[in-house]
Design brief:
alpha+beta; 8-stranded mixed sheet
Amino acid sequence: MQPLDEDWKLLLGLLPTQWQQQAVLSGACERLRGFSSTSSLLRTLLLHVGKGYSLRETVVRAKAAGIAEVSDVALMKRLRKAEGWLHGLCVSLLEESGWEMPAETHGYNVRALDGTLVKEPGSSGSLWRIHYSVRIPSLVCDHFELTSTKGAGTGEVLGRFAAAPGDLVLADRGFCKPSGVEALTRQGAAVMVRLNTSSLPLWSEDGYRFALAKQVGDLQETGAEREWQVWVQGAQGRIAGRLCAIRKSEEAAARARRQIEKKAQQGGPKPKPETLQYARYVMVFTTVAASRLSVSEVLEWYRVRWQIELVFKRLKTLAALGALPKYDDQSARAWLYGKLLVSLLGQKLERLGRDISPWGYRLPEAWQWQRVAGF
């Protein structure tokens, strides 16, 4: 057996036990012409996605290696059909690694939204923005949009994401604008967004500006939390909501202040005194009623938003997200799931590698695996 074949056998051992059945159930290996097996199909797809080869170069390499004999057009169609399969493999691997979230969704369909930039290879490569939404906890992508980074309608705004009654949308402070909050609220969705004090003015019931600095200043102890009834002024009227805040630890607050001061030293504007004060707190604006989620639950649910950040981190740092194929949304989503699968396999290989084996791999037939917190 060639070394590359040995490595591939080892990689297959990292996949979920039902990976071939998932391919059948998802329809990814239907009428498998040009591929000798489901393994060959996955190997060819990962050659394209993981190595970043073009479709044409991938099929040439696959034919030379005796893995598959298909055209570049046929491979693109296979990639589209593999979207559900690749997504299922990613979810299974994520379940193995484990992460915690609140057990009760209170009837909400929880979604996390964000955007990230990708650049095509080369010094003159175009810069693109991926607008992405995933469901929690399945991490199913329910919205994908690719836009330029220049021109009207290319920024990060909540209004570009379609929502439905029962949705609970989690987003970071870049999306914290009155127009976006109003757009999702009008669609019947609930919003939970990190407060951006410069882009989301808050108002009291009497119509005056909410005294943010004075109110949060009352949170003197680490871990102290509180909520206030506030309003946001939209184009079509006021929107009622809550501001939920918690005081950070001294270490976390000092780290946030250093980041603010560093930006100023690098040529940014001099920070205002209240900006340094707000660095002591995590403040989240939400339209969820207090009868459905308490202050602590709001803060815990906002913490779950980091799952989409981790998705982007895996794609960029571990899977070398670069040239994004732009054939259509389906092939682009499948390509992204393939990138995520590569990064998750690398993560699992690193985790298993902590247990030294003199022969280089584990014996799955003789080992019962159990997820343990912290391992």
